[in-house]
Amino acid sequence: MGLDTVELVMSFERYFNIEIPDTVSESIYTVGDAATWFSQELGVVGQRQSGVRAAVAEQIISELPPSSAEATLLRQVFPNASALKTYRHALRKRHGLILPPLSPLKTAPVSPSLWERLTGQTLPRVPHWYAQTVTELIDWAVAFNYEKLLVPPFASQYEVEQAVIGLTSDQSGVPVEEIRLQSSFTNDLGMD
To answer: If you ran DSSP here, which 8-state letter would residue 111 be given?
Structure first.
């Protein structure tokens, strides 16, 4: 285990107030492995219902256009950077909920791809999150605000998962929207 992962394990232990045995920490490779182990220790494994998630979903959806639902694509909700900025401000002002930074909608120019050079067409440059749904935005908001929203006792495995994602983001510097339960701490998140 490298320094990054040792510090992450210590953060997990402090946050959940549970010591991870060395044999267990050596067998945790992914974000999901860590979340599952803590869920088992906390007795919430398999429990998916979360009052925290329901409250955040209600807040997030209440600030969206009336026809929006959890399955709505974020590119439909935020057609431009101004719409995202206005939404972010309203959510924080009315509900005290802070969205993760999310990469900008307008990205810096990059060299054209081979396909673009051959066809003369330019592909749209949008961040990965733009193609996701409101469901993912809700999860990212819960994970990003984990210190405020997810405090013991944990009611569900969902809450433990989002806390693990939030802690991992803090320790690794990888944005919450790029962290999945399947993400490997070393291979995907670059932690040693």
So the answer is: P
